[in-house]
Specification:
With 193 residues, this protein is of the alpha+beta class. The protein has one domain. The chain has five helices and six strands, in the order αββααββββαα.
Length: 193
C-alpha cells in the first residue's frame, strides 16, 4: 500500500469512528447502521478510496423518513429505492389520498430496510394506515409515528472542508508530507535527471 493510501485509510478510520459516534447519539430509528472504507485504486498517479454504508438506521438518519424524507435532489438513490421491493407501494393511496410520501402500512408481509420480516396489521384496509396520523381512522387510538428529518451524518463527515474538520486538515498535511517524501526518494534514485 502506498503512503498516500495509508494516509487516506488512517483518515477514513477516524471519520468512520466519528460517524458511528454520531449514529449512536440517536435512539430513533431502530435498525442497523454500518460503514466501511477500502482503497479501490492505488496506482502511481491515482489513489482512490470508497466508503460503503448500509442499514435501516443509517439510511433513515442520512435521508429521513415519511413526510420528512429527502427528495431526489438530496438523495439521488431515492428513485432506485422507490423501484425496489423494499418501497411500500401503498404510499399515497386512499384512505388518506396523501401524495406527500407519508408512510402507509397495509396488510400482509413486508421487509424493512434491514431485511427483517414484518406482518401488516390490516387496519384501515384496503390500502393501510398513514402512520403519521394519530388514529386509525376508525376511532381507535394508534401510536403516531413521527417522521425523521435526514441528518446527513455521512455526507457532512466525509465532505467537510479542511476549515471545518480537523481530520481533513490533518489528512491534507499528511498527504503533502507523504508527497514530499515520495519526491525526495524519486530524486535520490536519480529519477529527476
Amino acid at each position: 500500500m502506498s503512503e498516500l493510501a495509508s494516509v487516506m485509510e488512517k483518515t477514513a478510520k477516524g471519520i468512520m469512528a466519528d460517524i458511528r459516534s454520531d449514529w449512536s447519539k440517536h435512539k430513533r430509528p431502530e435498525g442497523n447502521a454500518e460503514i466501511d472504507f477500502q482503497i479501490v485504486k492505488d496506482d502511481y498517479d491515482v489513489v482512490r478510496g470508497e466508503y460503503t454504508a448500509q442499514g435501516q438506521k443509517m439510511w433513515i438518519l442520512e435521508h429521513g423518513s415519511g413526510s420528512k424524507m429527502d427528495d431526489e435532489k438530496e438523495n439521488p438513490d431515492l428513485p432506485d429505492y422507490k423501484r425496489s421491493e423494499l418501497w411500500n407501494k401503498e404510499r399515497g393511496k386512499p384512505p388518506g389520498n396523501d401524495e406527500s410520501g407519508n408512510e402507509i402500512r397495509s396488510r400482509g408481509p413486508y421487509y424493512d430496510l434491514d431485511g427483517n420480516f414484518h406482518e401488516g396489521s390490516s387496519i384501515a384496509m384496503p390500502h393501510g394506515l398513514n402512520l403519521e396520523w394519530e388514529t386509525a381512522g376508525n376511532g381507535k387510538p394508534w401510536k403516531k409515528v413521527s417522521p425523521i428529518k435526514g441528518q446527513h451524518i455521512i455526507r457532512d463527515n466525509v465532505t467537510a472542508a479542511s476549515g471545518e474538520s480537523a481530520r481533513i486538515a490533518t489528512m491534507e498535511d499528511d498527504l503533502y508530507n507523504a508527497l514530499g517524501h515520495m519526491a525526495d526518494r524519486y530524486v535520490m534514485r536519480g529519477g529527476g535527471k
